Amino acid sequence: MGNRAIGKWALWAMLPLTLTMAAGCAIFGVAAHALPPPTIQAAYKGLQNQTAAIMVWADPGIRMDFNNIQVDIARSLQKKMTYDEKTLDVDELKGLTWPVDPVRIVRYQHDYPQVNSAPVTTVAPKFGVSRLVYVEIQTLQARSDVSVDLFRGTLVGSLKVVEIKDGQAKVAYEENNIRAIFPPKSPEEGVPNADDYRIYLGVVDQFTTELAKRFIPHPAED
After folding, report:
1. What is the CATH number of the domain that holds 112?
2. DSSP assignment, residue 114?
3. pLDDT tens-place string over residues 115-167
């Protein structure tokens, strides 16, 4: 058999190997795309076996337009941070309890308005817990900035976690400019065919989900 025949045979002999390698690359490529997104760890991990409460501050102008905002945010966030073996089995929340109802804290804020201007570290020990989750609301609106006839929920706030021990309190975690939009990824000009209450509920839910992510491992977003 001449060299030319040998060369042709060699090419055919290598073809299955080449196809196998190509298929392998394709399979690995599909597998890579099918991998789950990476997990982002909790930013604050000091809630295990603690007692906690949630305090929400909002400007009087915001409370005038959305008079239940403090209780709604506190209850929504507390629900998303309550350990459950079936629905929320995460180590970061094991042993965490919520002995103080959010309504009691809001009533305390109304009865003693001076606490709203006091440093949170002086207020935190008053609730008899070892952790206070403190939320400040800077912006809340249900309508678009472009037109009052279009709807787009926007909520911007900040978060602090206060650790309390032996009557002394310190801020252990702090983050500003936490933002939520509803409907998610909606255009800046807003959307029609909605109503203020539905948009309000949606943006509160989005915002408390963003807050809860600071305490719970969660998949990275696309």
Report:
1. 3.40.50
2. G
3. 989 999 999 999 999 999 999 999 999 998 888 899 999 999 999 999 999 99
Calpha distance 38→43 (Å, rounded): 15
Q: CA 146 to CA 30: how far, in whole Å?
A: 43
**DSSP tag of 88:** B
pLDDT-derived band at 17 (thresholds 50, 70, 90) equals very low
C-alpha 132/C-alpha 42 separation (Å) is 17
One domain, residues 143 and 182: yes
Instruction: State whether residue 89 is helix, strand or coil.
Output: coil
172 has a pLDDT exceeding 50 = yes
Residues 12 and 64 reside in one and the same domain: no
Residue 146: per-residue pLDDT:
86
Q: What is the pLDDT of residue 2?
A: 46
Residues 19 and 55 in one domain: no
Residue span of the structural domain in which 31 resides: 1-35
Same structural domain, 118 and 193: yes
Q: Mention every residue, 6+ apart, whose C-beta is less than 8 A from residue 204.
A: 69, 72, 73, 76, 155
How many CB atoms are located within 10 Å of the residue 157 CB?
23
pLDDT higher than 50, residue 52: yes
| pLDDT the model gives residue 136 | 98
Query: Can you tell me the distance from the alpha carbon of 121 to that of 136, in angstroms, rounded to the nearest whole number?
Result: 14
Distance CA 104, CA 152 (A): 31
Q: Which residues contact 168 (CB under 8 A, 6 or more apart)?
A: 125
